[in-house]
Structures are given as structure tokens and as C-alpha cells.
Write a structure and sequence with these properties.
This protein has 3 domains: about 90 residues, Fumarase/aspartase (N-terminal domain) (Fumarase C, Chain B, domain 1, Orthogonal Bundle); about 280 residues, Up-down Bundle (Fumarase C, Chain A, domain 2); about 70 residues, Ribonucleotide Reductase Protein R1, domain 1. By secondary structure, it is mainly alpha-helical. Strand 1 and strand 2 form a beta hairpin. The strands form 3 sheets. A two-stranded antiparallel sheet has the order 1-2. Helix 2 packs antiparallel against helix 3, helix 2 crosses helix 6 and helix 2 crosses helix 8.
């Protein structure tokens, strides 16, 4: 047939598959591959599979590749990927007799999975650090607003008075669980597949645990089949990013409403506001709009991870590796951008405290407490109290009365008319039941809106944030210790 080419690769395959993958591999795989190569050489030598001289030659050749630098590693026309490009350089520097032994007891399958896991680690830890920083910013913000009254909403309508701190504590709770998910994803990811080779392992007497230790993995994936077939370390990243995106997206929706003139709850800092090209009065909260859009991008990337993984056989998944790179690594990079931007917004946010206090009781948001008061003090059933207060509010709304204009005498008259009872409710108890501040302070149960109760929640969240910081430091120290151990092992062989 015309157009048939006998030589690999076809120009279009090279352009659309090999070259893009090679560019991504140079960004994400080069450092992990060099570390994995050194660990493999050390292991082969310690297990007696290659000589010390062979190991030293390979390690010194790897040093030469490092000195050459990833930017100088071009994709040879006959090579498929970064692995073969590096192997070609090793053979060039060490000779085929020594350089050709690097792939003993190893396949691109187990190597590729190890590199993906290693490349994910710094991105997962960076996202964890940014998530911790955002939570710290929200925690400090909430502590400033323990007494800041505001309306809480259900079904997009003013429901009951609460505080800004109580709202933010709820947001922090979700982000805390996202951190737990991220830590679990890191644990799932940080397991070594090395030693599985193509699928079944190898007949060479290798030490899988040694490679895992030198590369900072927490454990070895026991099944060699699972080692090259597992994709849950990838989909776990997508799950974390999805949950984080949904939580932040809902927060963004509220923030955008609060920033409207109709709400007037917050003022976005001028450094995040753009003007209109035609309307002089506009203060467009563009940072929230871009955050909303960027969250959508992150959610799309996360969904793409699952879609890439779901229809491949349970075996070698290398065929999706180059396709999933922009989604997998990109989702975590997008998450970092979002988290950093959000923290900066919170750190500079101004709350319109007096306006929110005024709005907290508007729309009869306190009358749940009035119904509860009737149950406690007048011995009505809750359904009787609910019906009476509902009629009371309807009559007030029809008469154009605000909550401040209501009187206990009007409520008593309505109770006599509708229920045929006499309400013995002191005026001061009636007024307290309609007071937004009293409403909030009465919610003193664990986790409630009362400032003291919310402060206790924030203290528990602060302790969890501190524990997460300790975990992050521990993970980074473990990786650094493995790097040091690998360097020392390599130096021992090269002198």
C-alpha cells in the first residue's frame, strides 16, 4: 500500500505519541529514573548478580548522564522513550559489556510503575503542604470571628443565626478529611513494585526490599502481578482531588454570593479585584471566578484519571502511562495553584462585621428559638409551637413588621385565637428568644454555634493540623534519609 513505512517510528507516531511523552518524562521521570537506576545497580552488586567493577562502571556512567543534564538528552530517532535514551548513553559511557547490564532482573514495566509512584510523591507532599497552609489560614481567620454573627442558609434562604467562625469550622472539617484522604493516597502510592520485572518476577536472586529501602518506599507490593497491574494509586489521587475540588467549589459558591453588593458580607482585597472597561463603579472579584474555573479544570483532570484506568486489562498498564501524565500530575499541580490562591484570599479578606450582625436576625431567622421557648416554658408540644410561630411570622410579614417590632402581646392574642390557650411568657423571655446573639450563645452543645463551642472545635482542628504537619515533616525526612542512604551506597561502590 502507498504510504507504508518500514522503519519505526512512523513520523506521526513520533510527533503525537513519542515526543510528547518524552517531554513529560524528562520533567517527571528523569530524577526518579536516575535514583532507581542507582538503587538497582547497588542491589544487583550486593546480591552478587553483577561484579563490583560492573557496578562502579554503571554508577560512574550514571554520574556522567547527570552531568550531561536532562536538557541534553534528545530522543534518538530509533528510541521509544527516556529509558532507552539513558541506556544508550550508559552503553556509550561504560561500554556494552558493563552498560548493557543495567536491565538485568528488571523490566520497563516494574520500573515505569516505580517511577510514576516516585514522581507522585513530591507532588502529593507539596499539595499536602499547601492544604495545611490553607487550613492554617482558615483557622486563624475563624478565631478572629468567633463572635461575628451572620445568617446561616438552607435551601439558599436565611435559616438561623450563626457565626462566621462556625461556618469556617465546618469548611475546615471537610478539608481535614481531605487531608486524611491525601495521607491515605500517599500510603497507597508509596509501595515499591520493583522486582516484578515484566509480570512474574525474575529467577535472579534479587532483594526487593533493598531497592524499596534505598528509594524511600514504605513497603514492597507483595504480588508481582499486582505490582504491574495496580492502578488504585492513580485513582486514589483522582479521588482526593475530586473531594477537595467539590469541597472548595461549594465554599467558592458561598464566597461569590458573599462578595455581591446584595449580600455585602465580605470585601475581596484590591489585589484580587479587576475593574470594568466601561463601568467605573465595578469591583469584580475575579480571583473567585478564576478559582471556580480552575476547580472545574481540576475536577475534569481527576475524572480523566479514572476514565484512563477503567477500560484497560488487569495487567501491564504502560499503554496509558503517557496519556495519563497531563491528567495525573496536572491535577496535583492545579490543586497546588488553587490552594495557594485560596490561602492568599483568606489572609487578605475583610469581613463586614456590622452589616452581617444586622443581617443575622433579618427574615425571622431566630424564631426556631421562639418555638423552642414555648415548648420549654409554656409546655406546648413542638408541633403546636411550630404552628403558632409560623402563623405569627406570616401575620408579621403581611403587616410589614420586622422582628424588632414584634411583641409578646401579639403572640399571646394569636395563641388564644388559634389554640384557645393563655401563654404565660414574660416579655424579656420573648425578646431573648428573638435576639440573634442569644440564639447563637444558647447553641453551646458540642460543635454548636456558640463561640465557646466553636472555639473547642477549632482547637481540635488545630491539633489535627499540627499532627498533619508532623506527618509531612516525617515523610520528607524519610525520603531525604533514603536519598542519603542511596548516595552512600553508590559512593561505597565507586570510591
Amino acid at each position: 500500500m502507498s504510504g507504508r513505512s518500514a522503519a519505526f517510528p512512523h513520523p506521526l507516531y513520533h510527533k503525537y505519541v513519542l515526543q510528547p511523552y518524552y517531554r513529560d518524562a524528562k520533567i517527571y521521570y528523569f530524577a526518579p529514573m536516575m535514583a532507581a537506576n542507582r538503587a538497582h545497580v547497588v542491589m544487583l552488586c550486593r546480591c552478587g548478580i553483577i561484579t563490583r567493577e560492573n557496578a562502579a562502571a554503571l554508577l560512574m556512567a550514571l554520574d556522567q548522564v547527570d552531568l550531561l543534564g536532562v536538557a541534553e538528552l534528545t530522543l534518538p530517532s530509533a528510541a521509544e522513550d527516556l529509558f532507552f535514551a539513558i541506556e544508550a548513553k550508559l552503553i556509550e559511557f561504560a561500554g556494552v559489556a558493563y552498560g548493557g547490564n543495567l536491565q538485568l532482573a528488571r523490566s520497563r514495566n516494574d520500573l515505569g510503575y516505580a517511577l510514576t509512584r516516585m514522581a507522585l510523591r513530591p507532588l502529593l507532599l507539596a499539595a499536602a503542604a499547601d492544604l495545611i497552609c490553607l487550613r492554617e489560614s482558615l483557622l486563624a481567620f475563624a478565631r478572629e470571628h468567633l463572635e461575628t454573627l451572620m445568617p446561616g442558609y438552607t435551601h439558599t434562604q436565611p435559616a438561623q443565626p450563626t457565626t462566621m467562625a462556625h461556618y469556617i469550622a465546618g469548611v475546615l472539617a471537610g478539608l481535614g478529611r481531605d487531608m486524611t484522604r491525601l495521607r491515605a493516597a500517599y500510603a497507597t502510592n508509596n509501595q515499591s513494585p520493583l522486582g516484578a520485572a515484566a509480570l512474574t518476577g525474575t529467577a535472579f536472586p534479587i532483594d526487593r526490599q533493598l531497592c524499596a529501602d534505598l528509594l524511600g518506599f514504605d513497603s514492597v507490593l507483595l504480588s508481582t502481578y499486582d505490582s504491574v497491574a495496580a492502578s488504585d494509586n492513580l485513582t486514589d489521587v483522582g479521588a482526593v482531588v475530586t473531594s477537595l475540588g467539590v469541597n472548595l467549589s461549594r465554599f467558592s459558591k458561598d464566597m461569590l454570593f458573599w462578595a455581591t453588593r446584595e449580600s455585602g458580607a465580605i470585601r475581596i482585597d484590591d489585589s484580587f479585584v479587576q475593574i470594568s472597561s466601561i463601568m467605573p463603579q465595578k469591583r469584580n472579584p475575579v480571583v473567585l471566578e478564576h478559582l471556580r474555573a480552575r476547580i472545574s479544570r481540576m475536577l475534569a483532570q481527576a475524572a480523566g484519571i479514572a476514565l484512563q484506568c477503567h477500560n484497560i486489562p488487569f495487567g501491564d498498564t504502560q499503554d496509558i502511562e503517557d496519556e495519563i501524565f497531563p491528567l495525573l500530575f496536572g491535577s496535583l499541580e492545579t490543586a497546588q495553584e488553587i490552594l495557594q490562591l485560596y490561602a492568599a484570599v483568606i489572609d487578605t479578606l475583610e469581613v463586614q462585621v456590622a452589616h452581617l450582625r444586622e443581617r443575622a436576625g433579618a427574615g425571622f431567622t431566630t424564631v426556631t428559638e421562639l418555638a423552642d421557648t414555648l415548648v420549654r416554658e409554656c409546655r406546648l408540644s413542638f408541633r403546636q409551637a411550630h404552628s403558632l410561630v409560623s402563623a405569627f411570622v406570616s401575620a408579621a410579614a403581611e403587616g410589614g413588621l420586622s422582628p424588632e417590632q414584634l411583641t409578646v402581646a401579639e403572640l399571646q392574642a394569636l395563641a388564644a385565637e388559634q389554640l384557645g390557650i393563655t401563654l404565660d411568657l414574660p416579655p424579656e423571655h420573648f425578646q431573648r428568644a428573638l435576639d440573634p446573639a442569644a440564639f447563637v450563645h444558647s447553641r453551646s452543645l458540642s460543635g454548636g454555634a456558640a463561640p465557646a463551642a466553636t472555639a473547642a472545635v477549632l482547637e481540635a482542628q488545630a491539633e489535627q493540623i499540627a499532627a498533619d504537619r508532623s506527618w509531612l515533616q516525617g515523610r520528607r525526612q524519610a525520603l531525604a534519609a533514603a536519598d542519603d542512604a542511596l548516595l552512600a551506597a553508590a559512593r561505597d561502590l565507586t570510591g
